[in-house]
Amino acid sequence: MNDFDWKNLIDPLFYIHFDVNGIKLGIYIVLFIVFAETGLFAGFFLPGDSLLFLAGIYSRELIENILFIDNDFINVVLLSTLVALSGILGNIVGYWFGSKSGYYLYNKEDSFWFKKKYLVQSKDFFEKYGGKAIIFARFLPILRTFAPIVAGIVSMDKQKFMFYNVLSSFIWSFTLIFAGHYLYGFLLENYRIDLKEHIELIVLILVAITVLPVIYKFSKKSKVQE
Hints:
By secondary structure, the chain is an all-alpha fold. Helices cover 72% and strands 2% of the residues. Helix 3 (48-57) packs antiparallel against helix 10 and helix 7 packs antiparallel against helix 8.
């Protein structure tokens, strides 16, 4: 926690290596961030996708925050499952909040924590893809935050919502965490490329892959409406 810099808030490694007086808390911070992206509506600035990819690379370190398991595969599966459960819980909270306060949100003024345009964009996305939007949104920043809220606002069937919620959360967490872990091992073993030495580049690439398509989609839509 020494030498804190506000830039740390968008640095996934800051959360993974987070400690207080030598006590490592990375796993708890990662799980909280996954929950917060949907449960606390803070997904527009938290490093969700890049965080999970890097969590896969540091899976052993994260799991050792709570217990020691001398098996890489079990470490990755356990981490992915914990992340999936946090994502499920976050979506449930988002759905509940949407069902209880939809009118309030549509009439709420913009703030640092809330942008109504994101809610409207997510609603349009949800109406176009229906339940599948829950799955698609998991891989898209901003939409990931508001999709469960919109599902609650439009009173999506609870059983249907839970099906897509569970499915999307496991697909999202297992895909990114396994990709990070095994791609790191593959490149290191076969090409002597250590991804830990290229963290900033990895984050930039992942941000570009996930954020730019969303920006392009919504900017194109805005031009059409004009």
